[in-house]
Structure prediction request, 376 residues.
Amino acid sequence: METLWALLHQTGLAVFLTDPEGWRQLVMIVVCCVLLYLGIAKKFEPLLLVPIAFGGMLANFPLAGMTEPGGVLYVLYHMGIENALFPLLIFIGIGAMTDFGPLIANPKTLLLGAAAQFGIFATLIGAYTLGGFTMKEAASIGIIGGADGPTSIFLTSKLAPHLLAPIAVAAYSYMALVPILQPPVMRALTTEKERKIKMKQLRAVSKREKIIFPFVVLFLCALLFPQATPLVGMLMFGNLLRESGVTARLSETAQNAMINIVTIFLGLSVGSKLTAQQFLTTQTLMIVVLGAAAFVVGSGAGVLMARLMNLFVKEKINPLIGSAGVSAVPMAARVSNKLGQEADPSNYLLMHAMGPNVAGTIGSAVAAGILLALCS
Prediction:
């Protein structure tokens, strides 16, 4: 009987029933089940949300040892998140999948991608002055406004690793909610006439231009924003694999096998931080609210920048494409196109919106480098 009693106390069920913190672990398992539902049933960023949620479930089962030294989640986290390896590898894959042609054809849209990063810095100030967060924590929260999951994880793992789980979940949740969050902002900041603006077809971009582009971006970034070089460098390396024309096998691997494998490991690693001690706090609720503010402000800033540019340019820009500057490739560009066609069914904005969309990917990486420089 003593042996059976001792065995009973070594079960997870006994911990749930007797440990004062057991109910908190049960709550987190329920939270992870909700995230799984959103990923599977609602298709909210399922490629990341499903591994994150499942990793969170594993992390909250008592006595499993998944997050203790030697546990698989512990190993994955220290192998790829603590040193920011996984986000950098994902950026290689993103670069290999990205066509910068629309940005090269219309360089003015780079300003829209830059303007959309305003949400990051506005939220940083708000979180630091009003939310009671440290500068490093505020910077990690603000980067959610870039709508770029790997960048959010990269910066947070360096500045505020204890906030990694809520920031990662918030970042990917808002990326999935782009079709819901952006349209009200876009309609509120534009007129019917502006939404009907038709833009001239983009010029054809030569192969030479596409090959030179990664080097130009990399050298400018390395000279002006050296702390952003790891992210931008991996992004441009992946794009060079795509555009060089001589590394098709490497490009295909980066776009498919490599990014899929790393995504699995990244999701499980982030999920390992979805523990009750780190997630069930008032800070988490504030992060969710501030993250939404960062995203909305960034979307609005891109739209307003397009309206400002129209005061000075001959060929008018449809302000709807400005909201695509928050990144979230290509979903934000599709939202711009959809609203444009609501105003005029013959108005096709997708390729025009891809310019600020891919510019936003570069912009969020540069913003992360600036924040690293400010907070280090």
